[in-house]
Write a structure and sequence with these properties.
The chain is mainly alpha-helical. It has 34 helices and 8 strands. The strands form 2 sheets. It has a 4-stranded antiparallel beta sheet. A 4-stranded antiparallel beta sheet has the order 2-7-4-5, with no helix packed on it. It is globular.
């Protein structure tokens, strides 16, 4: 049979086995990776048994195909590793990863170095193999496989933080282990003694280089998403190309870590790509990568495991003893990091404290898997490695993988239950009970109505209703549990729920296409800061973060500076337009959150906490409304246009929903739906065209609005306009400080300011007024401070132009002085 046909037969048979194993894993409550390793080992044993048979039947031909697949270690790494890494990086919770970045880096980098040294030293002292060979084995067994562990966590309902720690560790420790593996393999085959300092330096360079390459390539990919015009198939293909191209470019051309490059690229796409793709396309992308990840993980486990029987057949008693030493040393090295180094990070404030229960689970849950097997068989394939070292590494690495899969993995469930990590905290348990009570009450009403409307037998309806009523009765104590929580605990739960709900509201509006990609990025970032603030400071943290969100970002202030100093107004116009839309969406979201409190949270947490949360949101809404109203007063026409566009987007989304409903109900056919959808897409493109905010900063127009310059001829006003420079003052901005040097005077073209006088009450000036002239006329420090009450367009006249200004216009200096005298102490 032709080699290509045999290979296809082998792969298709393995995919068939793979498709059958997940339901078996669920049925018998066995981690899927354990079942994959067991199935692969059985297939490997059958392949050995059938080696002398003639391939005249499909089953025998399949077993022969398995033994002839011929995947090298390089093929394992280059074919499967980019997919596994990119898929995990796309799906990980980046915000939680950042929360625990310090312990994850410690587990992923320092733990690999410690494990390599401890395991290598222990094996070297108890065997006749060289230190380099023993450390090579230590690097190989330092890679962890999170798939089985995270699956167990999910099944048992273990805390999410455990999964993030284990996933984050596995994402990055492969990079450290493979970098060390490459260095030590070169030393072993080249005859050099290990140089730990050079190895650490090489790892740092390759790690940082991989981060830079991965981030840069991911940014380019995210930019290309916009050019692909929401074509899902093209977007998925682009990310697949990114994963493999990154790995190959990093390893073969840039001489940096391909693992780190792929992981960094995946994380960057997860962070920035989510709002660059349409919501449906993003969900399709994730689903496609989950499928690819499932195939890659299953195939690499099955293929690698088929080689296990022939490797273990030659193991003797002495190697069994070394396997025990290896298992003990690896466990000791991991415990040394968890209880020796992690507490130091917590003590100096670089990481949140991790409980001893979590640490025990992380210790015992350090399973090894596909990458360890691939690296071990890579040594066995290497022509430059002595035969005795090949056998030594392959046997011990394979044996250790089997120990972690068949000893650690099955007992991990028992350990989690023993430590009580599968149980909810009192606060979460109280919330769960309240959720059951609220949802079941609604379900009970729905069932009763459905039974009556559909004329269902009353006894059948009563049987169903009884189940819900008995469950509601069983948790009547839930209100007591909630009441037992302190007020601060309930407020913390409520605010955290509100912040997460706010994030979901923004994502939903993005899915409904009523918010643009550019705006939703800022909204999600703001919601993320609220979540972090609640975790760090509860009520005070939330209020502080909400207040800071109303301020002006650094990018916006940079745009203002560019306008003031270089008269470049495009970034300022874009910044004002974005802030307008941002504030509008936040205000709408806060209104929805208030309804959410009354409809859900108050019933779950208590009316007193509901009222407190509403008061907090009301303060926030007032601040947002004031900021939005200040912009509306300055740009009323743009505000009306923005409101109209929001409503048009909402109407078009509802129109699209109606068309899809008509198609689903077979009222219209696919041809009619396609025509309607095409027309809607064209109208949607018109509505989504960028709105231009006219700043209205033409100097001639602003000068013409000033009563002071009304007597001037058009030519004279043109001369004045050339001397004046427009400036936008932001709400509460300090325009002048008392005691400052008089280097300019200001004319108010629109808006209002407040002049703070030392000897009297503050004075407000509005459109047509001016200030700052006294310091120029008297050559003294300013005697008043001035701040903007809202958005103000000012015309600035520099001191060097002031003399020319008043000299060129007879009587203007006297007029300015007369007005200043009528406002004693105001001028500044």
């Amino acid at each position: 049979m032709h080699d290509v046909v045999l290979t296809l037969l082998g792969l298709s048979g393995l995919l068939l086995v793979t498709s059958c194993l997940p339901p078996l894993a669920e049925r018998f409550n066995i981690p899927l990776t354990v079942l994959l390793a067991l199935a692969g080992s059985v297939l490997g044993a059958l392949a050995l048994w059938s080696s002398g048979m003639e391939a005249n039947k499909p089953g025998i031909a399949f077993l022969h195909a398995l033994s002839q697949l011929g995947f090298s270690s390089e093929a394992f790494l280059y074919i499967f590793l980019p997919t596994l890494l990119f898929e995990t990086a796309l799906s990980i919770d980046v915000r939680r990863l950042v929360d625990d970045l310090a312990p994850i880096l410690l587990l992923a980098v320092v733990a690999v170095l410690v494990s390599t040294a401890v395991v290598g030293g222990a094996i070297a002292m108890t065997s006749s193999y060289s230190l380099v060979a023993c450390m090579l084995l230590g690097a190989i067994v330092s890679t962890t496989d999170p798939i089985a562990v995270v699956g167990i966590f999910r099944d048992l309902g273990a805390p999410r933080r455990l999964s993030v720690l284990v996933e984050g560790e596995s994402l990055l420790n492969d990079a450290a282990a493979i970098a060390l593996f490459t260095l030590l393999l070169a030393m072993l085959t080249g005859g050099h003694e290990p140089d730990l300092l050079a190895g650490v330096g090489d790892f740092v360079v390759k790690f940082l280089g991989g981060v830079l390459l991965g981030w840069t390539a991911a940014w380019a990919t995210v930019w290309l998403f916009g050019w692909l015009r929401d074509i899902s198939l093209a977007e998925i293909t682009l990310t697949i190309a990114l994963a493999y191209a990154l790995f190959i470019l990093a390893e073969q051309f840039a001489d940096v870590s391909g693992v780190v490059a792929v992981v960094t690229g995946g994380i960057a796409v997860a962070v920035y790509g989510r709002t660059r793709l349409s919501p449906d396309n993003w969900d399709t992308l994730l689903a496609s990568w989950r499928q690819l990840g499932f195939w890659a993980n299953s195939l690499i486990f099955l293929i690698a495991s088929t080689l296990v029987p022939r490797t273990l057949m030659a193991m003797h008693t002495g190697e069994l003893w070394l396997l025990l030493v290896l298992a003990a040393a690896a466990l000791f090295a991991r415990a040394l990091v968890l209880w020796g180094l992690l507490p130091i990070l917590s003590w100096i404030g670089l990481a949140q404290r991790i409980s001893h229960g979590f640490l025990l689970v992380i210790l015992w849950g350090g399973l090894r898997g596909a990458v360890t097997l691939a690296l071990a068989f890579g040594v066995a394939d290497h022509a430059g490695v002595p035969d005795e070292v090949k056998r030594f590494v392959a046997l011990l690495a394979t044996g250790f993988v089997l120990v972690t899969l068949f000893v650690n993995a099955p007992s991990l469930r028992w350990l989690i239950r023993l430590l009580g990590l599968d149980r909810l905290s009192p606060a979460d348990q109280a919330m769960r009970d309240q959720a059951i009570r609220l949802s079941h009450a609604s379900v009970r009403e729905h069932v009763a109505t459905a039974a009556e409307d559909n004329r269902i037998d009353p006894e059948a309806a009563a049987a169903v209703l009884t189940r819900y009523e008995s469950r509601i009765a069983a948790i009547t104590e839930s209100r007591k549990r909630v009441a037992a929580l302190s007020e601060n605990e309930r407020a913390y739960i409520g605010l955290l729920t509100l912040a997460n709900r706010e994030e979901e509201l923004y994502l939903q509006r993005f899915r409904d296409r009523v918010v643009s990609r550019e705006i939703v990025d800022g909204l999600l970032a703001e919601a993320g800061r609220l979540i972090d603030a609640v975790k760090g400071g509860a009520v005070a943290g939330y209020q502080k973060a909400a207040l800071q969100a109303l301020g002006f970002s650094r990018a916006f202030r940079l745009a203002v500076a560019l306008h003031q100093h270089f008269t470049w107004s495009t970034p300022l116009a874009r910044g004002l337009a974005d802030r307008f839309e941002h504030l509008l969406i936040v205000r709408l979201a806060v209104d929805e959150l208030k309804s959410f409190i009354r409809g859900r949270l108050a019933a779950a947490l208590g009316d007193d906490i509901g009222q407190s949360l509403e008061a907090i949101l009301e303060d926030r809404r007032d601040g947002v409304a004031r900021a939005l109203e200040a912009m509306r007063l300055q740009y009323p026409d743009y505000a009306k246009t923005l409101d109209a566009r929001y409503l048009a987007r909402a109407a078009q989304q509802r129109e699209g929903d109606e068309y899809r409903a008509l198609l689903a109900e077979r009222v219209i056919g696919p041809e009619v739906y396609s025509a309607l959808d095409s027309d809607l897409a064209q109208r949607r493109a018109l509505v989504n065209r960028p709105l231009r905010l006219d700043l209205g900063i033409s100097r001639e127009v602003l000068v013409a609005k000033m009563p002071l310059f009304a007597p001037l001829t058009p030519d004279q006003r043109g001369q004045v306009a050339r001397l004046l420079r427009p400036r936008l003052a932001l709400p509460d901005e300090r325009i002048l400080e008392r005691g400052g040097r008089g280097d300019a005077m200001f004319f108010i073209s629109s808006g209002a300011v407040e002049v703070e006088i030392e000897t009297g009450p503050a004075v407000r000036l509005g459109t047509g007024d001016f200030f700052g002239e006294v310091a120029l006329l008297t050559h003294r420090p300013r005697n008043a401070g001035v701040r903007a009450l809202g958005y103000c367009w000012l015309l600035t006249l520099q001191a060097r132009d002031f003399q020319r200004f008043i000299a060129a216009h007879d009587g203007l200096a006297q007029h300015i002085s007369r007005v200043a005298q009528e406002r004693p102490g105001v001028a500044g």
